[in-house]
Amino acid sequence: MDNTALLLITILLISVLGIILSVVAYSYRQLIRKYYVLRDELDREKKAGKAEADKIIAEAEVRAKEIIAEGTVFNQKLQENLSEELKNASAAQAENYQAILKTAQDEVVKTVSSMSESVKSQILQEFKSFTAEATTQVQKELQAYKAEAGKRVDESIFEVVSTVTREAIGKSLNLSDQEELIINALEKAKAENSL
Amino acid sequence: MSSPVLKLIKTTEEQSLFEDELNSLKNALYQNEDHFNEVLNGLRPQIAKALVTELSANSDSKENYLNNLTEELRKLPTVGLTLAFEPSSATINKIYDWLASHTTTPTLIDIDVNPRILGGVIIVSKGTYSDLSVKKSVDNYLKEHKAEIIQNLKTNKLIS
């Protein structure tokens, strides 16, 4: 191949390369343009969305304020109603209570009046019974005490009599008697094999 | 066969006194004959006389005789008698004579005095206790006839 041919081919290739570069540059420019368009659209949409959100929030705030306001009003109304109800109820209950109290008082008076005689009779009967029992018990205890006291007196007298008897017998024994008693005792002991 | 001199010992009190006398005689033996005779003659006359008689008739040595006599004295049986009064020698003799005539061996009397028994005697012999006192008899009578006595007192209005 000669140099000319090489030159022509090179020129050709360079031309083709130039054309290709031109096409690529054009495509890139178009792409960049499209990118900016899309970015602008996105910005617009973002702005539009924020506005929408702000609008929604604002509307919610307004609604909340309205609800709170309504609630306060309701609360005031409710309190007023409740007070009224309570007032009415208290009055009713007071009337009922008075009625019940009156009834109960009447019942008590009636019951006490009717029972007083029977109770009085019962108490009197029980008192009589208690008095009889107490009298019997006291008499028993008195008799037991008298018996015990008499027994103690008897014991004391008997002890005195015993002491006097011993002393009298002891003093009545002379030496001869004493010696005789000793010998008799020795004989008895001997008979019992105690000596 | 007990020594005749032991029949002169009637109570535990005399037994103790006689043992002291025998010990004095044994101690005198180690000095001289005169001192022994001096001590012997210083004893109670009846005891001294009985010892002289026995010593003169005894063929054994004085020391052996006195030792044997001491042993016999210690072995004499004893009867404990509680009396209501302090007995005289005559009373002791009567009791001793009765015991001597009713027992096989001479028996010493260990006398105790307690007026509260009123009369009679409490005997402690051969390990037995016999209350034969007047007090016990009286107490038994009073105990047995207590109700009767009280009734009599009431009957005679001595008590209500």
> What is the mean pLDDT of chain A?
80
The level of helicity of chain B is: 55-70%
Give the end-to-end Cα distance of chain A, rounded to a whole number of Å: 184 Å
Number of DSSP-assigned strands of chain A: 0
Largest sheet: spatial strand order of chain B = 2-1-3-4
Largest interface: A-B, 28 and 36 residues
Bin the strand percentage of chain A: under 5%
Mean pLDDT figure of chain B: 91
User: What is the oligomer described by this structure?
Assistant: heterodimer
The DSSP helix count of chain A reads 2
List the secondary-structure elements of chain B in sequence, H or E.
HHHHEHEEEHH
The 3D shape of chain A can be described as elongated
Helix count of chain B equals 7
Global geometry of chain B: elongated
Q: Could you spell the SSE succession of chain A in H and E letters?
A: HH
Structural class by secondary-structure content of chain A: mainly alpha
Radius of gyration of chain B: 23 Å
What does this structure look like?
The complex is a heterodimer of chains A (195) and B (160). Chain A contains 2 helices and no strands. Chain A is mainly α and 195 residues long. Chain A has one domain (3-191). Chain A is elongated and about 200 Å long. The termini of chain A are far apart. The mean pLDDT of chain A is 80. With 160 residues, chain B is α+β, with helices and mostly antiparallel strands. Chain B folds into 2 domains: 4-75, no CATH class; 78-140, no CATH class. Chain B contains 7 helices and 4 strands; from the N terminus they run H-H-H-H-E-H-E-E-E-H-H. In chain B, strands 2-1-3-4 form a 4-stranded mixed beta sheet. In chain B, helix 1 runs antiparallel to helix 2 (33-41) and helix 1 (12-29) packs antiparallel against helix 4. The longest helix of chain B has 18 residues, at 12-29. The N and C termini of chain B lie far apart (68 Å). In chain B, 21% of the residues are buried. The model of chain B has no long low-confidence stretch (mean pLDDT 91). Chain A binds chain B through residues 150, 153-154, 157-158, 161-162, 165-166, 169-170, 173, 175, 177-179, 181-186, 188-190, 192, 194-195, and chain B through 79, 81, 83-85, 91, 94-95, 98-99, 102-103, 115, 118-121, 123, 125-126, 128, 130, 132-135, 138-139, 142, 146, 149-150, 153, 158-160.
